[in-house]
Design goal:
The complex is a heterodimer of chains A (about 290) and B (about 475). With about 290 residues, chain A is an alpha/beta fold. Chain A is about 30% helix and about 30% strand. A 7-stranded mixed beta sheet of chain A has the order 12-11-10-9-13-14-17, sandwiched between helices. In chain A, strands 5-6-2-1-7 form a 5-stranded antiparallel beta sheet. A 3-stranded antiparallel beta sheet of chain A has the order 4-3-8. In chain A, about 50% of the residues are buried. By secondary structure, chain B is α/β, with parallel strands linked by helices. In chain B, strand 8, helix 15 and strand 9 form a beta-alpha-beta unit. Classes of the chains: A alpha/beta (about 290), B alpha/beta (about 475).
Chain lengths: ~290, ~475
């Protein structure tokens, strides 16, 4: 099956959006789920959140941050190109159980997978408070889109170049101190951020859902590379998650596991640069199988 | 010249890559028989009328007949005889535990060493593949009924081939991006070359079996979806979920399930990193936990990635190891150190945040347990630390949960595997069949293939009965 890239659009620095043909995945997609993508026949399998889907058009939307070889290669793809494999939807969908006040927090790229959840929360009749955070103004995207789904909206940047200077925990802390009744917090972002938010909401005993993105190979529960400690149990993020109770997740372990291939990832990326360089010189040899 | 008795001829040994050479590559360890060797070996077969070997084979290959064809130099015909009942001869000739099956009951084996049935099977399959004249089996008569097979491992492929030969329209759904299941993600190249699996799967495609990859039944489509367009479904998803021991430190970076380690290497070709993007580090000291074929495959793979030292940590003794004897010998030759009667109790974190040692407890054998093997029990005060920078846990697998969670009405057995009628392979849901590891728990390739055959017959019977009623 050919997965044609229907649309590609830059969203922020190093972040871009792709709408890709994947009718089977679009048909079954629910908020909170992800896919595994393999770009070409030598490519790795990488998990990516499904940000949106169009059942009629048979497309899914992905938001990608350039962080390694595969995402760099994807950035070089254009509309009309195709992706070799798209596998999913994977993971359990978000449980949207209550009607009440929910706080949705997205850090960096986390704003993208937060979008379908926020949409579902709003649709279910929740009062939605959204907090987006980024390093700097140029890393922010979908402000208008997210704001439209929110009854109350906050934005923070680390360097103060836009919105409130500081971390996403500051507006949440204020809300808590003001005595806002919050029924649940949804938080997607860097590990340290999800840890900080979970620590904060634990004090106030507010149920907190985090969505994890650990290293994964197959996405079906077969490899166990994505195992995380949740409470006293080992869970597989691919089939038991990706969403878990933030108060139970061992974030330090998750962080350590995510660091495991850093050197390899850097090496693969530099190799890609080398390949590209050789390609320009015209002496690039296709590897023989 | 006096004709020598078959039993006087020594069992023909296959040449192998030397251990020094082969630990530096991923090429197959044993070479096949030459024509001359194969024909000499075939002379050892007594052509027994009651052929106990055939009963020893889970897919009932007509062993005396195919060996006779080799003896008479009709190699392609020999392959055709095997393929009457076995659709994956190149695979089975390599990975079947013949010593536990056909060769175990071989009459020649009672007088001297049994006929090398497995090596002859491989020879016949290889001769056919090399000839380029691979015979596509005939289809009896086209039928319009459709059957969906979930999983493209040995059970699924076998059922697919048998049903297609009966004339059914067969679609195989595979979750990974390549078909073959454990044959491609699990068993390493040095034991089962990918091109052998590919060629045998290609025959099925030529036969008209449709294979759809990247479909996870239970998520991308459900069994209920499939039942709308197919008359029967065969669940052959294997027992994919890796077991861990649940001991402290087991989630430290550097600790892998064998599934992950082998998948990175075999399916994702990490040994070609960075041309292939998936990485797998070269570790210095590796402990593999377990004593089965998967543990040995992991240990030998780690050795080939250039580890200085690979330990196979197994809680019982060599006699109880479930791995094939042939592969145990190969591993020993390759310098794998067997740490027998030992068991990890904890993993220790190094300053880099990764595993730096395994705390190991020594064991002794007590009374036999329910498996008939003597139960290992810890020796108090025997613990020591084994410095390692990677651990591969290969202590078995459990049923895959994804498909089960969407079938709440499906009857499971006490082990959590799918309960089936052993004669037909049918589950508690009409029209839904199951077989292979998802029914038996982790077992062998050939047992899964046997289950595939049973289910194919069961499905045929079910569809024809339903048509009549």
């Amino acid at each position: 099956m050919s997965h044609t890239i229907i649309k590609k659009q830059g969203l922020a620095r190093n972040i871009f959006m792709m709408e890709i043909k994947a009718p089977l995945v679009a048909q079954k997609h629910q908020a909170g789920q992800f896919i595994i993508l393999r770009l070409h026949d030598k490519g790795e399998r990488i998990p990516l959140s499904i940000v949106d889907s169009d059942k009629e058009q048979g497309t899914i939307t992905l938001v990608i941050q350039v962080v390694g070889k595969t995402t760099k290669e994807m950035e070089r793809c254009n509309e009309g190109d195709s992706v070799l494999d798209i596998f999913g939807p994977l993971g359990k969908p978000t449980l949207i159980h209550e009607k009440g006040t929910v706080v949705a927090i997205g850090g960096g790229l986390g704003a993208a997978p937060l979008h379908p959840i926020l949409k579902a929360l709003k649709k279910a009749g929740n009062r939605t408070i959204t907090i987006l955070g980024a390093q700097s103004k140029e890393n922010i995207f979908w402000e208008v889109k997210m704001k439209a789904l929110s009854h109350d909206f906050h934005i923070t940047t680390d360097d103060g170049s836009y919105g409130e200077k500081g971390l996403v925990s500051a507006p949440l802390q204020r809300l808590l101190q003001e005595g806002t009744k919050i029924d649940r917090v949804y938080c997607i972002g860097p590990v340290f951020m999800m840890k900080a938010i979970s620590n904060l909401t634990k004090e106030y005993k507010i149920p907190t859902i985090v969505s994890l993105n650990p290293i994964m190979v197959d996405g079906t529960g077969m490899c166990g590379g994505c195992r995380v400690t949740v409470g006293n149990d080992t869970k597989f993020a691919c089939v038991d998650g990706p969403e878990f109770d933030g108060h139970q997740v061992d974030f330090d372990e998750l962080h350590k596991r995510l660091q495991f291939y850093t050197k390899h990832e850097e090496f693969a990326e530099s190799h890609l640069e080398k390949e590209r360089h050789q390609c320009k010189l015209g002496d690039f040899n296709n590897e023989k199988e | 010249m006096k004709k020598s008795k078959p039993t006087d001829i020594p069992r023909q040994q296959v040449p192998e890559q030397t251990p020094e050479k082969r630990i530096k590559n991923f090429s197959e360890v044993p070479h096949g028989y030459s024509e001359e060797q194969a024909q000499t070996e075939s002379l050892r077969c007594l052509q027994c009328k009651k052929a106990p070997c055939v009963k020893g084979c889970p897919v009932e290959i007509n062993i005396p007949q195919f060996i006779n064809a080799i003896k008479e130099g009709r190699f392609l015909e020999s392959a055709a005889i095997i393929k009457q009942t076995n659709n994956l001869p190149g695979v089975c000739g390599r990975v079947c535990p013949q010593e536990e099956q056909c060769e175990k009951v071989c009459v020649v084996g009672k007088m001297s060493q049994p006929v090398s049935i497995g090596k002859l099977e491989r020879f016949a399959a290889d001769m056919e593949q090399q000839s380029g004249k691979i015979k596509i089996p005939a289809i009896k008569e086209e039928k319009k009924e459709k059957v969906a097979i979930v999983g493209s491992g040995p059970a699924g492929l076998t059922a697919a081939a048998d049903l297609r030969k009966m004339g059914y329209q067969v679609t195989v759904y595979e979750a990974l991006h390549r078909p073959g299941g454990v044959l491609v993600y699990g068993i390493p190249e040095f034991r089962l070359p990918n091109k052998i699996v590919e060629a045998e799967i290609h025959v099925l495609e030529e036969l008209g079996v449709e294979i759809r990859t990247n479909v996870l039944i239970g998520q991308t489509k459900t069994i209920q979806d499939l039942m709308k367009s197919y008359q029967a479904v065969f669940i052959a998803v294997g027992a994919g979920l890796p077991r861990f021991m649940n001991i402290p430190g087991e989630n430290l970076p550097g600790i892998f399930s064998a599934n992950e380690y082998l998948t990175r290497s075999n399916l994702m070709k990490a040994y070609r990193f960075p041309d292939h993007t998936t990485p797998l580090p070269q570790f210095k000291k590796v402990a593999v936990i377990g004593g089965g074929n998967v543990a040995l495959d992991s240990a030998r793979t780690a050795q080939r990635y250039g580890a200085e030292k690979v330990y196979l940590v197994y809680r019982r003794s060599r006699e109880e190891m479930p791995a094939r004897k042939e592969e145990i010998v190969h591993a020993e030759e390759e310098g794998i150190e067997f740490a027998l009667l030992q068991n990890p109790v904890e993993y220790i974190e190094g300053t880099n945040g990764q595993v730096c040692a395994a705390r190991i407890q020594k064991m002794e054998l007590g009374e036999p347990d329910e498996s008939g093997r003597r139960r290992p029990k810890p020796i108090p005060g025997s613990e020591y630390e084994l410095p390692v920078d990677a651990v591969i846990v290969a202590i078995g697998t459990k049923p895959q949960k994804v498909i089960l969670q969407t079938l709440p009405d499906l009857k499971l057995n006490e082990k959590g595997n799918i309960d089936v009628d052993p004669n037909t392979g049918m589950t508690s849901l009409p029209g839904v069949f199951a077989g292979g590891d998802i029914v038996t728990g982790a077992a062998t390739v050939i047992e899964a293939m046997g289950a595939g055959k049973t289910a194919a017959r069961g499905i045929d019977h079910y569809i024809q009965e339903k048509k009549r009623s």
